[in-house]
Design goal:
The chain has 130 residues and is of the alpha/beta class. It is 18% helix and 26% strand. Helix 1 links the parallel strand 1 and strand 2. The two termini are 22 Å apart.
Amino acid sequence: MPAAAATVGYRIAERATGRGLATRAVRKLCDLAATSYGLTTLRATTTLDNAVSRAVPTRSGFTVVGESRLGGRPGLSYRRSLAEATARPGAPTAGEGVPRSVTVRWSEESGPPDDRRASAATGRRDGLSS
């Protein structure tokens, strides 16, 4: 069975930083990626000049795997294995409708995605876009 991987991206409005929103969202995304989508690996990239953004993958269980460039700026690449997470029965297996890129978005006013409501933009109940 081939490994299923996706890339994680995140952006928080400057006025909403320092509250742990990105870290909470990425941790939740890691759980969903394994249990709901059957992903086995997540990747992320940050720029070197954004220490706050670099802390998010580190706090979320990612490991630095090399240098990279993001938007022409020097950065770091991260990887997290989701092998420790157990997929729920009936979850897609690798390659079955698995998203390749997942971005978490929300505004300060609306707060983080709520699993109980459908996202107006995607129609998905997990509030994520793929």
